[in-house]
Design brief:
This protein has 249 residues and is α/β, with parallel strands linked by helices. It contains seven helices and eleven strands. The strands form two sheets. Strands 3, 6, 7, 8, 9, 10 and 11 form a seven-stranded mixed beta sheet that branches. The protein has a four-stranded antiparallel beta sheet with strand order 2-1-4-5, covered by helices on one side. A hairpin with a 2-residue loop joins strand 4 and strand 5. Helix 2 runs antiparallel to helix 3, helix 3 runs antiparallel to helix 4 and helix 5 packs parallel to helix 6. The protein is globular and about 50 Å long. The two termini are 29 Å apart.
Amino acid sequence: MSNAGYILRARAIEKTYTMGRTRLDVLRGVDLEVSEGEWVAVLGASGSGKSTLLHLLGGLDRPGGGAIEFRGSPLGTMGRAELDRYRAASVGFVFQFYHLLPELRVLQNVTLGAMVRHGRIGFRGETRRAAEARARELLEAFGLGNRLGHRPKELSGGERQRVAIARALVNDPPVLLADEPTGNLDRRTGESIVDAIEARRRAGGLTIVMVTHDERIAARADRVVRLVDGLVEPEGDPAGIVSVPAGSE
């Protein structure tokens, strides 16, 4: 099958963890193709392999079997430096817990994402000024223009998640991988976070793969993929379909 139009492609992905004498097959042959600019929601119960799949797509871990490609390039053949560049420049990560550095202010936390990409030595002069301008632009767009000098402890949960999203997007990656980005928030705040992500997608053609347990949020995506016990569960035909359109339930 051609890779034309697919930004991410996973084929027969397997992942197993061994804990003592216990073998845990988390993913058991998952296929997934994500088109440029598409928003895919991944649903499933706890332990179904959702977060594991996201980590593999982002190059945070390697599968035990199968292959993952980014724009036709296999992640499995990338060396450490190339994989670091992929994670820094091509993929933005957002997690349920914000992972902001408490000693840094909001603008510094966001700009840190750019420093990771360029390295401390390369993060000077025009590069630094451009990164700070990009960080300011994102924070303004997310309604945090008056919070640039605050530290994370001075922000609400929703504000902290907006900062985390801005940090994930500061390098303008083509792909955003979001793992339960609203799971630690109330419904109204969670929906505002998804609104912010969707606005960036409309503005720049961002591709989104979002793990969620919230059916309402999943219904806003272009497509829903359901994982059950490490396998994709098709709707109505376990042998035939990889995913179902959002809102078709």
